[in-house]
Amino acid sequence: MIRVVVADDQAAVRAGLVMILDSAPDVEVVGEASDGAQAVRAATSLRPDVVLMDIRMPGVDGIAATRELTAAGIAEVLVLTTFDLDDLVDGALAAGAAGFLLKTVDAPALVDAVRSVARGDGVLAPEVTRRVLARLSARPARPAVPGVDDLTARERDVLGCLGRGLSNAAIADELVITEATAKTHVSRVLAKLGLRSRTQAALAAQDAGLVP
What we know:
Oligomer: single chain
CATH topology of the largest domain: Rossmann fold
Largest sheet: 6 strands, parallel
Radius of gyration: 17 Å
Shape: globular
Number of strands: 6
CATH class of the largest domain: Alpha Beta
Structural class: alpha/beta
Distance between the termini: 38 Å
Order of helices and strands: EHEHEHEHEHEHHHHH
Strand content: 5-15%
Mean pLDDT: 89
Strand order of the largest sheet: 2-1-3-4-5-6
Number of domains: 2
Low-confidence stretches: none
Helix content: 40-55%
């Protein structure tokens, strides 16, 4: 069962999200929060697999809460917001969010995204994916990424796969390993590079020249 905390400052929106998620046989909403501080407290106490996080909330916003949760390794964070502004997308991903979706997403896609994040994969809304990729391709060359030289050959292969946006299952297929082994390699790559999410790893792979 995938355990989820839902954080949104609008009670009606929270209720709708809870209804959608609880309708899935493998998802259980274990807590709710109306701001970022409550989200951090709820996640710290309840230890969910995923926190579904709005960005613009009173007090501590969703990006600050995401940064705190991912830095402590408490839960994966899937951002769900009304706004697709580039600074919000970049801020959420830099804070370590595993995914970014808009509230226009339909119910089945939302549930699938929660499942993907829970199993360690990343998710980006189609509306923002092209813009993120365009910004990546326009980035100037950067210095060597600290820690990449310390990766094993297999871990460098995995980092390259992350740079191409592959899921754990796809990495396993490409490298002819089990999905569990792929997940272990991903965790080691993130730890060695001091990264919080697969998206940050994808950026590191780009900077390290591991993506064709």
